[in-house]
Write a structure and sequence with these properties.
By secondary structure, this protein is an alpha/beta fold. The chain has one domain: Rossmann fold (3-Layer(aba) Sandwich), CATH 3.40.50. The protein has 7 helices and 7 strands, in the order βαβαβαβαβαβααβ. The protein has helices spanning 12-23, 36-48, 63-74, 100-127, 149-169, 191-200, 209-221, and strands at residues 3-6, 27-32, 52-57, 82-85, 131-136, 173-180, 229-232. A 7-stranded parallel sheet has the order 3-2-1-4-5-6-7, with helices on both faces.
Length: 240
């Protein structure tokens, strides 16, 4: 049985990815930071559907916590064929209004953690002969979002990290990214603002987690694909 680790998997898109991969036959490690009950409930739901999953905690801003997470995964010779770097921090703020601590928090989780998780996952993947890393970016990564400045910077850098990892870790390990658009609104997005954003897109409709999962299936099944970013956003990236 192949093993997958999904960061930030206790809720939202991470949870949808976890259920989907379990249905594809993966043993799924569900990473969480503080949402232990949600992670455990998700594991139970997967098991009720004849899947296999376990929860693993880590503060992705801490090196020692990430190392402990991978020690848990690799115990007794465990491997990791698939890593989904999904965890993300979405903190609003213009670049000249962002605190030092907020800058560090965003960069720690959105950029440094995917790098370090990928570095630690690579030896486990090579044990099984090949592996795949998928970074969940954001369709807005290429936009000049002044109100979410540091978030946008972190996601743009994650696109470059995806390419560098693909070039570094091949041929045994493929590295790609998926950039979803208007699929799930953030907690601070009003219904009116969400409707306005959706209406600006060429397709004029919001996406669903199923759209992201179809993109993930394409990446999983395309063994000649590496260093690529799959944009699943209804054309949101085209909107100024």
């Amino acid at each position: 049985m192949k093993t997958a680790l999904i960061t930030g998997a206790s809720k939202r898109l991470g949870a949808a990815i976890a259920v989907h991969l379990a249905e594809r036959g993966y043993f799924v490690w569900i990473h969480y930071h503080s949402e232990q009950q949600a992670a455990e409930d998700l594991c139970d739901a997967i098991r009720r559907r004849s899947g296999n999953a376990a929860a693993v905690p880590a503060d992705l801003s801490r090196e020692d916590a990430i190392r402990r997470m991978f020690e848990t995964i690799s115990a007794d010779g465990g491997t990791c064929e698939l890593l989904i770097n999904n965890a993300s921090v979405f903190i609003p703020g213009k670049v000249d209004e962002t605190s030092f601590d907020d800058w560090n928090r965003i960069m720690d989780v959105n950029l440094r953690a995917p790098w370090f998780c990928s570095v630690l996952a690579a030896p486990l993947m090579k044990k099984s002969g090949k592996g795949l890393i998928v970074n969940v970016v954001d369709s807005g990564a290429t936009k000049l979002w002044t109100k979410y400045a540091v978030y946008g910077i972190s996601k743009q850098a994650l696109l470059r990290l995806t390419q560098i990892l693909a070039k570094t870790l091949g041929p045994d390990i493929r590295v790609n990214s998926i950039s979803p658009g208007l699929i799930l609104p953030s907690a601070d997005t009003s219904a009116e603002e969400w409707k306005r954003l959706v209406g600006k897109t060429p397709l004029q409709k919001e996406g669903s987690p199923a759209d992201l999962l179809r993109a993930l299936d394409f990446v999983l099944d395309s063994e000649y694909l590496t260093g690529a970013d799959i944009v699943m956003d209804g054309g949101y990236r085209l909107v100024s």
